[in-house]
Amino acid sequence: MTTPQFRSPLHTTLRDREPAFAAMSRLAAVGGVSAADFGRDVEIPFTAVLKGEQSSLEALGHLCGQPGGVFREWTPKIVGSAKRGIRDHLFPVRPLLTSEVRGLPCCLREDIEGSTLPSHRAMTFRSHWLIHHVSLCLRHERELVVLWKVSEQTQRYDTSTQFRLIADRVMDESLGGDEREATDFEIWFDQRLTGGPHEKTWLDDHPLHAASVFCRLLGTALLRLQGINASQIAPGSVWACYQSGFDVARHGAQAILRELQKLNHCAEPRRGPKAVFPSLYDGLAYDYVDDPDFAPYREVFTQHLRESWPLGPGDELLGTAVTVRKLHSVRTAAEETGIDSRRLRKLLEASSMIDASLPDAWAVFEAEAARPMLASLINLMSAKEFFDAFDIGRSQFNLLVEDGILQPSLVDADTKHVWDPREGRAFMDRLLIGAETIQQAQHGWESIAKSAQRLKLRPADIIRAIWDGRIQRVARNAQFDGYASIHVYHDEVAQALAQETPSAVSLELFTKTVGLGNPVYLNRLVRQGHVPTTEMRNPRTGAMQRFIGTEDAAAFYLRFTTLRLLSRAKGTTWQSLSHRLRAAGVTPFSPDGFDYGHVYLKKDVEAALAD
Questions:
Q1: What distance in Å separates the CA atoms of residue 492 and residue 457, rounded to the nearest whole number?
Q2: 563 and 584 together in one domain
Q3: H or E stretch including 394?
Q4: What range defines the domain where residue 212 resides?
Q5: Is 257:300 a contact under the CB 8 Å cutoff?
Q6: How far apart are CA 237 and CA 240, in angstroms?
């Protein structure tokens, strides 16, 4: 016997690009109730429909007299913990589900004019309005506007209820939307989203969201060629950045590399890549470093930096400290060897090792290949030539010599030219290994000389502490050259070396030292009893507070490790280590469900990374 199928009077046809939650809201409006109440009445939770749960969509389809698959097409579906899928394209959940809901009044007005239903039931919400890369209606060539702003999710996406509140403003055209022509990027994005036919580009081989973000980041960087900084971009003009980046990236890696090469000359290389393309660099080095969809763009950017930037110790390559110099420029080679830059340039040009059209700062060549030639040209220096070459300062130089940090290459010679510039460079590089780059000294950064002076220490005390690993936070200040550019974090130096302070560090400073990023992670580890601390009186405020003492730190290092500590120990990038750990199934420490950041059990990591 066949069970008769229930036929609901709430039959409806899904409209163009309409998500299931909007259709459900229309059905709820028939009875004059909220979508959440309607869901409870028909036993289809509205929250489940918002999540795109398959069983709920099928139940809703059955209620409407439609196959459940129809509702899945334009309904955002939960994929993992941080993404939503729309038409098989993945987008991050946060910008997708913002409290501000956008749309186009022109489309809504057409809905009302073409229907006999009440306006709030006639209007249709389009799913692509949720995607933050979309800012224009291609058919009307008008920009989307904010229709409403609601914090609570079930109320925010109860679209018919919200449409009732704005219906008068839609019809009287008080809700605007500026006119402008659709860009090539916007047409391409819509065609990829809908699966429509379009001219293939290099970007079509990569996921849509990552490709769109890269276009925006690249386009923002390219504004520098027009003398425009990212801070000058008006909020409503970001569409132009998408288009600018798309116009280059659509043609592939070589086209991108050509434009990046043009950007190089917007700043001195000693200021670091972030000074030339800050948002592009931060995006690929930090914001999206764990997203494999961005790997093709990181590869292109990494290729550019490796082939054209004279990076050495004290610089970083997409968030990873440079430990060995691959490329020299005329300028860096002259600084390292003490050879006159004009003489060096002539020799390099004669050997066809540099592009003669580039300035000294950007005329690069392979450091290893040129090593024999550079060695043959080196002349030993006098003490004054040596400390001037490395911006050490006479008094600092004398102190470093007295304490055995710097020593001449020749002893008891009948010449004052006894100082080898290569030893000076090696001294600098040893201090800068693993250092970060800062654009100016602030938030506690001091030169070695200034920090030593404030604490009444010898500079050699700080330098040996850096070499011994007792001082971890070292930076190269891009405003200075040589020894004067090397900065330390003064509070760390004080807590590590000053006699009047305890042999312990604050939780905040220990967080920075081990590379946990946010102090909240270490605080959680302490509160949950995973990391011991020592309570003692703060020598400055007199208040009792928790510190990480010597034994506490030893207990942390015995049990835990972080990507920064691993990177220093293994001599490789933290990105590659993160990938290896994920591939081996090693996840950050979180036995009780708390987020402690990227801290790992040392025994798990050692087993996964064992050769």
A1: 14
A2: yes
A3: helix 394-402
A4: 184-309
A5: yes
A6: 6
Q: Are 161 and 29 in contact (CB under 8 A)?
A: yes
Q: Domain count for the chain, please give it.
A: 3
Same domain, 211 and 97: no
With a CB cutoff of 8 Å and minimum separation 6, the contacts of 265 are: 359, 362
pLDDT 10s digits, 96-151: 778 899 999 999 999 999 999 999 999 999 999 999 999 999 999 999 999 999 99
Based on the domain organization, do 158 and 209 belong to the same domain? no
Instruction: State how far the Cα of 161 lies from the Cα of 172, in Å rounded to an integer.
Output: 19
Residues 6+ positions from 151 with CB-CB distance below 8 Å: 99
For 8-66, how does the pLDDT look when each residue is reduced to its tens digit (9 = 90+)? Answer: 567 788 899 999 999 999 999 998 999 999 999 999 999 999 999 999 999 998 888 88
Contact 46, 21 (CB under 8 A): yes
pTM above 0.90, yes or no: no
pLDDT on residue 502: 52
Q: Which DSSP state fits 217? A: H
Structure tokens of 192? 């990829």
Positive or negative torsion for Cα 252, 253, 254, 257? positive
Is-contact 130 80, C-beta < 8 A?
Answer: no
pLDDT for residue 500 = 47
Distance, in Å, from the CA atom of 300 to the CA atom of 292, rounded to the nearest integer, reads 14
* Partners of 286 in beta bridges: none
Question: Which residues in the chain land under pLDDT 50?
Answer: 1-7, 500-501
Which runs of E-coded beta strand occur in 411-553?
A: 436-438, 445-447, 474-477, 486-489, 504-506, 534-537, 544-549
The beta strand positions in 142-206, using DSSP E, are: 142-143, 145-149
Q: How far apart, in Å, are the Cα atoms of 58 and each of 18, 27, 65, 68? A: 16, 15, 10, 4
Structure tokens at 5: 């199928």
Residues 194, 154: one domain? no
Residue 372 DSSP SS3: helix
Q: Is the dihedral of CA 185, 186, 187, 188 positive or negative?
A: positive
